Amino acid sequence: MPKREPRIWTVDTPNTSYVVALDDEDRLHGLHWGPALTTEQAASLLDLPAPAPRPATDGLDARLDLSPGSALRWGQNGLQVRFADGTRDLELRFTHAETEERRLRLQFEDPHYRLDIAVEYTTRPDTDVIERRLSVRNRKTEPVELVRADSATWVLPRLEGYRLSRLHGEWGAETQLTRNELAYGETHFGSRRGLTSHQANPWLALDDGTATEHTGPVWSTTLAWSGTWRIGVERTVADRVAVSAGAGHDPVAITVGPGESWQSPLSSGVYTEGGFAASADAWHQYALAHVLPHPEELRPVLYNSWEATEFDIDADRQAALADKAAAMGCELFVMDDGWFGARTHDGAGLGDWTPNPDRFPKGLGPLIEHVHGLGMRFGIWVEPEMVNPDSDLYRAHPDWVYHQPHRRRTEMRNQLVLNIARTDVRAWMEDRLDRLLTENEIDFVKWDMNRSFTEAGWPGAEHPDDLWEGHTRNLYRVIDAIREKHPHVRIESCASGGGRVDFGILGRTDQVWTSDNTDAVDRIDIQEGFAQVYPARVMGTWVTDSPNPFTRREVPLDFRFHVAMAGVLAVGGDLEAWSESELERGAELVAAYKEVRPTVQHGRRTTLRAGEVRGAQFRLGDEVAVLAWRRGRSFGHDDPPLRLHGLDPAARYREAGTDRVHHGAVLAAHGLHLRLAPDDYASAAIRLVKED
Ligand code: GLA
To answer: How big is the CA angle at 673 (ends 672 and 675), to the nearest 5 degrees?
Structure first.
């Protein structure tokens, strides 16, 4: 990234540019985020008339790329400090720029308070995603508080309108996509719960209100953080818009001690043309290339015993389920909650990570051997950040949980949160997991986290607020350490379903549990929202029983499988209660999934829609997988053909398992005739292979 002019810098990606420039007061303005500009073109941005604020009223709101709380700033600040003497305004001077290939670092200082601030932009040769972070160094002898220290403030160009897409939800209804006109003023969303949350996901997309699935420019940002967070979008009356994203929440501040440095997590942003599909695709490709630890792997078809047994676990029943799962073609057997301590219900045992001696008198060894003997890998459920008050761990260490003096300890699901920000508790957690994985041949860990923080205090700590950030940083540290010591172990991130899904956790886990709601009909929306950001390669999807235990809805087996095939297919039903024909059909569908698995998990996804038919298409090389689902037909109307995207118009595509051959041009212009049954809950999984 060569320096274009003394005070203007261009961050280039293969197809886009982000341009920033300093004004005479050393304020960093965002000048451009959009199509690629040459050096000369970028430099000419300085000739454009600067937006002229009305001096008495308007400030510099929503125009600054580094937006510190300081003079002429009344909008949202991406950086807000509090010095020891009470001063809050920052007066930053630019000191220098460090430019390397694919990295730009702009360095500022507040000379009086000797506080260094750096903004950093990183790009990659194969993606238009720009990664950003903020760094702080305190060179003074007093601490400084960071009230707000966003990873990035992204300045959007002026558009004719602004529409905000985001994901909200709740337990059992995660990643619900909404698209609404962006309100004037400030729009904030985030989490104060201690984890990413079901309620909001750290992603957004902005367009001018006219983008469609396949057309139009879209600006999108994410935050790679699994603790509390906030994203603020500001729209001024003069239609300037900026997005500021960072860890932390009001009113918690981070203290940076004398001589200490602090670095924010990453916020990433991508500008794409080609509608919401292109934006989602950019995130998926970025995740596969630069976020996941083992993106090249195909995730196995897993079986999870939770819905079949809940807490009623014993070695024989698990072994019997494993037999059925193996026969169906599952490749990884995961024993869920209830195997340890006194955990025969949700009121006891959390924290005591040794096998329950009544349920596993000979330890886990015999079951693991049995599962391995069936040719499957063995996985286990843990919830290491938690404790039941009725546990040996809590009886020994009642001070290890977050708590505040003279306040009650509010339980959720009869459990409290361990203060893993404490060094001793973090060390205990790492040691316990290390021992579990050393003593047993475990291949996979489902790492759960089932409650939000309450009474989040740390009596005796110098800066109790540090627990919020410390929890997440130490969680990352432990996962990283466990991965390093047990490199063959793969990890699933779960938090009562999809409560901890973000690019921070995905940088160190292999898949996520999308939702405790396994109803295939509800899952269509949950999965479509999820797919706005995260790739199918990480989206855990179970086929469970009918009627669904969560919604009581009855859905045919094929429909349940076809919806689950859009992610990392798994089986989570009570296989001992399935009929022979269901088990047989299940095995056929697992085999069909394995045929399209590389295309689904490593290919490019597109959302499909035609009339009442919904679906997803995946493309990889010469292979195309089409999954389609239709709940019911209104007025007996026929299903329209489903238009496909990104195919070679000159090529022919053979439909596997049939003698049908389709022309790429016709599939794009008219669509694929699905031949769905006229009944409710009709569905299809179609594999197309390009002919030479
Ligand atoms: C959470 C998870 C479930 C299951 C239970 C076990 O709710 O999301 O999948 O593991 O905990 O208690």
So the answer is: 140
CA-nearest residue for atom 8, ligand 1, is 496
* pLDDT number for residue 575: 98
Is the CB of 449 within 6 Å of ligand 1?
no
Examine residue 251 and say whether the peptide bond preceding it is cis (omega within 30 degrees of 0): yes
Tell me how far apart the alpha carbons of residues 276 and 200 are, in angstroms, rounded to a whole number. 19
- Ranges in the chain annotated CATH 3.20.20.70: 302-513
**Known active-site residue 323:** no
- Say what the pLDDT of residue 271 is: 99
The closest residue, in CA terms, to atom 7 on ligand 1 is: 496
Q: Give the tens place of pLDDT for each residue, 396-439.
A: 999 999 999 999 999 999 999 999 999 999 999 999 999 999 99
- Domain covering 62-290, topology: Beta-galactosidase; Chain A, domain 5 (2.70.98)
- pLDDT for 2 equals 47
Looking from the CA of 638 toward its CB, the CA atoms found within 13 Å total 6
CATH placement of domain 607-690: 2.60.40.1180
End-to-end C-alpha distance for the chain, whole angstroms: 42
H helices of 330-449, where? 365-373, 392-396, 423-439
Where does the chain hold its CATH 2.70.98.60 domain(s)? 62-290
Q: Rounded to an integer, what distance in angstroms lies between the CA atom of residue 448 and that of residue 381? A: 7
Look at residues 316, 318, 297, 298 and name the one whose alpha carbon lies nearest to residue 306: 318
Relative to the CA of 497, which ligand 1 atom is closest? 8
How many whole angstroms separate alpha carbon 604 and alpha carbon 269? 19
Nearest to 352 by CA among 327, 400, 384, 381: 384
Residue whose tokens read 């990480």: 538
Which residues make Cβ contacts (< 8 Å) with residue 361, sequence separation at least 6? Answer: none
Please state whether beta strands 229-235 and 241-247 pair in parallel, antiparallel, or not at all (unpaired). antiparallel
Which residue ranges in the chain fall short of pLDDT 70?
Answer: 1-6, 51-58
Task: Give the model confidence (pLDDT) of 658-683 as tens digits.
Answer: 999 999 999 999 999 999 999 999 99
DSSP string, 611-643: TTEEEEEEEETTEEEEEEEE---GGGPPPPPB-
Q: What does 140-189 look like in DSSP terms, one character per residue?
A: SSS-EEEEEE-SEEEEPPP-S--EEEEEEEETTEEEEEEEEEPPSEEEEE
Which of 450, 492, 501, 514 for a ligand 1 pocket mutation test, highest count of atoms within 8 Å of Cβ?
450
Contact of 337 with 348, CB cutoff 8 Å? no
What is the radius of gyration, based on Cα positions, of the chain? 26
For residue 4, what pLDDT is reported?
A: 44
The CATH 2.60.40.1180 portion of the chain extends over: 607-690
Helix (H, G, I), strand (E, B) or coil at 85: coil
The confidence score (pLDDT) of residue 61 equals: 81
d(CA 328, CA 572): 12
- Closest Cα to residue 584, out of 399, 233, 328? 328
Q: Is the pTM of this model over 0.90?
A: yes
The CATH number given to 302-513 is 3.20.20.70
Catalytic site includes residue 24: no
Hey, what amino acid is at 583? L
What pLDDT does residue 117 have?
98
Say if CB 681 and CB 645 are below 8 A apart.
no
As a whole number of angstroms, the distance between CA 219 and CA 446 comes to 34
Q: Which residue has the tokens 């047994």?
A: 309
